[in-house]
Amino acid sequence: MYIINADDYGISEENNLAILEAAKIGILNSTSVMVNTPYCNYDILQQLIDNEKFRVGLHLNIFEFNTLKKDLKLNSKLYDENGEYHNSFASVLKKSFDKEFLEEVEEDYRIQIEEALKHFKPEHIDSHVHMHAIPNLFKIVCKLAKEYDIPYVRTQFEKPYLIPDLKMFSKTNLINLIKVCLLSSFTLLNKKEVKKYNLNTNDYIVGVQFTSNMDVNTLYYGYKANSKKDKLTEALLHPTKNAEKINNYKEYLSLLDEDLLSKLRNLSLR
């Protein structure tokens, strides 16, 4: 069983259009929406929502753009004086044991969920640059998912894998491998929260090791390494129709590959 998800709906108009086209004529069956960006086009999104076979979820974001909070907090640990987020993954991880910071995160996440609910009912929750995977943030997300009746929260267990392509081998950098190990270890803790709140999640993920390099080969071999019969694998991509963003444009093209779809279906029957 597989989900092929496009993260970052709303990050740019080119991304929105790539997601719409890949859903209409390609193999994309899911997307995650950033509601705090100026490019979150709900007219385009409605075409995806109207497709009953397509999943639309929420891409929680405390990494870039601005908070939706109206009354900005002085000396916020989450955003600057203009309301713009200013934390890296590492800084959020460091602050994740700070009660005041976690209270800010929960308030911000709640605002984003309620903004989404004005336009659509999220079927799942994940996050920009995987910040919700940080265990103390994941606890908040599961609690809110249960409260707002959102049944699925993404986890990030990915087995590292090789591609029989020297060009792609060079793109397996140390930072991404460290990220895979870190997120996979967090998943071992986070799945306890999923169970506690009786939520659904994926068994495996594909797309961390080769972030923004998810072409046909990385999707196929990633799914091959990270799938088992009766287990759910979620692949994540960041497609765009902007050909100047070469890697993300390749991701868009991979989502139009019908042969890949049949290969993934065959793998799911193993």
Would you kindly provide a written description of the structure presented here, covering whatever features stand out?
The protein has 270 residues and is α/β, with parallel strands linked by helices. Helix 1 (13-25) links the parallel strand 1 (2-9) and strand 2 (30-33). It has a 6-stranded parallel sheet with strand order 4-3-2-1-6-5. The model has no long low-confidence stretch (mean pLDDT 93). It has helices at residues 13-25, 42-49, 89-95, 99-117, 135-147, 166-169, 174-196, 216-225, 246-254, 258-268; strands at 2-9, 30-33, 55-60, 125-127, 204-206, 233-237.
Keywords:
single chain; about 270 residues; alpha/beta; TIM Barrel; six-stranded parallel beta sheet; 10 helices; 6 strands; about 45% helix
SSE blueprint:
Layout: E1 2-9, H1 13-25, E2 30-33, H2 42-49, E3 55-60, H3 89-95, H4 99-117, E4 125-127, H5 135-147, H6 166-169, H7 174-196, E5 204-206, H8 216-225, E6 233-237, H9 246-254, H10 258-268
Parallel strand pairs: 1-2, 1-6, 2-3, 3-4, 5-6
Helix pairs in contact: 1-2, 4-5, 5-7, 8-10
Q: Main β-sheet: number of strands, strand sense, barrel status?
A: 6 strands, parallel
- Side by side, the strands of the main sheet go 4-3-2-1-6-5
Query: How large is the share of residues in beta strands?
Result: 5-15%
Distance between the termini: 10 Å
Unreliable stretches covering 5 or more consecutive residues: none
Order of helices and strands: EHEHEHHEHHHEHEHH
CATH homologous superfamily assignment:
Glycoside hydrolase/deacetylase
